[in-house]
Amino acid sequence: MVDSSLDFRKQQHALLAILGLGLILRLVWAALIPIDPLSDSVAYQTFAENIINHGVYGWEPDKPGAYWAVGTSALLAAGYHVFGMHSWVVIGLNLSASLLSIIILFNLGNRYFGRPSGMFAALLFALWPLTIQYTTIIASELFFICFVLIGLYFWERAKSTTYTVLWLLAAGAAFAGASYIRPIALLLPIFLTLFEVLRGETRILNSLLRMLLVLVTIGVLIAPWSYRNYQVFGKPVMISTNFGANFWMGNNPNTSGGYQPLPDRLDGLSETEKSDILLGEAKEFISENPTAFLKRTALKAVQMHNRETIGAHWNKTQILSKWGETGFKISKIVPTVYWYAMLALALAGLVAFVRANGFWAMLLCTPVMIWGYVTSLHSIIVVSDRYHSPSIPFICLIASYALATLYNSRRRTG
User: Fold this and answer.
1) How far apart are CA 366 and CA 336, in angstroms?
2) 199/303 Cα distance (integer angstroms)
3) Which of 118, 150, 312, 332 could make an SS bond with 110 (beta carbons 3.0 to 4.6 A apart)?
4) Are 302 and 286 in contact (CB under 8 A)?
5) Which candidate, 364, 346, 407, 309, places its Cα nearest to that of 195?
6) In 3-state terms, what secondary structure has residue 60?
7) Quick one: which H or E segment has residue 352?
8) DSSP characters over 378-404
9) pLDDT for res 4
């Protein structure tokens, strides 16, 4: 673990400066690039408007659905309900998620790796171009990141306080919120528990009881939506109906690994019918050549990390309007260069951690585990560069270890 003589009060001042920097960068971006929904943003906006105006989640007021998880549109609708349907509400929600994520990264970095890792992790996230570009995008990424980090913070607090049950209930609530945004969060408590046991941190029974309490909390909070879905579709649907479609997109004879339109032959079928058919086809395709599936999954893992341009594409209309083609190219190049720099820094962090703690400890480290968890799940299904976004805070944490190691080394030799 990295340790430092850096005064904690100075770190607190540094955190305030980082928050100020992060806020200024995002406000400047928002002032330059107005919100102009494209692609998925149009869907989230439509769903939120239908929730506000008709009390229905779906593409049309008279057709409730659950193809996408409800969380993002529900948060947006809540903001619209309180403040009115204004674009600054989206900016405010995105800013809040980003700034809260910075604060929690500061705390998690210090907890996982010691001071001043938290300060460096917070700074890397504050400067991350994609998270800045997301300020003017209606999307799930910042909300999901924030809820996962909140859940992790509460999970860790439960290990070192007398209010263990309350912190675990709070962790369950946060992970439930993340699951409403992206269901991939549902399994996180299980993997967190497994890796804690492998690290030998707690007794197996204690770990299982902690996990059970968190999972029950998640289940209780998700149950109302699952019941709503059962009423709509006449069959169990926990959160959303798009798993079959996403699984098929990444596993069919014509797959590129990324998004594909659904086949026309499914027109007229219900969401659940489409999901069941496509899931069956994907499973059959995999079973016919499991070796190809493994190769395809590995390639998708690489494809998922090969660039970082989604922020530019989802702001494309306004970027082209303000800065033209050259500006659009720059808005893709800058995030991608930063992305590769952070991957390199994270690799350096992994090497430094292995040297200090061993290879096994590195594999079981929580930030490494969650990065691998996100990558593995999406590589099995469907990928694009946007799907590595949930890994960003954990890459920041790993990279922060490299910076903290270098910082402490120079302080000792200086």
Assistant:
1) 25
2) 31
3) 118
4) no
5) 364
6) strand
7) helix 316-357
8) HHHS---GGGGGGGHHHHHHHHHHHHH
9) 47
- In order, the DSSP letters of 271-324 are HHHHHHHHHHHHHHHHHH-HHHHHHHHHHHHHHTTS---HHHHHTHHHHHHHHH
Q: Enumerate the domain spans of the chain.
A: 8-243+269-413
Report phi then psi at 60, rounded to 5. Answer: -125, 150
Angle (CA) 380-189-191 rounded to 5° is 50
Two structure tokens written together for 295 = 């190769």
- Is residue 70 classed exposed, middle or buried when 0-12, 13-18 and 19+ CB atoms within 10 A define those classes? buried
Instruction: Note if the bond before 253 is cis, omega within 30 degrees.
Output: no
* Other beta carbons within 10 Å of 7: 10
Give the CA angle between residues 124, 128, 131 to the nearest 5°: 130
CA distances from residue 242 to 42, 68, 373 in whole angstroms, order as listed: 17, 6, 20
* Average pLDDT over the chain, rounded to an integer: 95
Structure tokens at 219: 């289940």
Helix (H) or strand (E) holding 156: helix 141-157
Over residues 343-386, the pLDDT tens digits come to 999 999 999 999 999 999 999 999 999 999 999 999 999 999 99
Residue 411 has what pLDDT?
77
Q: 3-class DSSP state for residue 193?
A: helix
- 183 with 238: CB under 8 angstroms? yes
Backbone angles phi and psi of 63, in degrees to 5: -135, 85
Q: How many CA atoms lie within 13 A of 152 on its CB side?
A: 27
pLDDT at 10: 84
- The residue with tokens 């479609």 is 245
Partners of 320 in beta bridges: none
Buried residues in 169-203 as b, exposed as e (16+ CB within 10 A): bbbbbbbbbbbbbbbbbbebbeebbebbbeeeeee
Residues 121 and 395: their CA atoms lie apart, in Å, by 9
Q: What are phi and psi of 335, to 5 degrees?
A: -60, -35
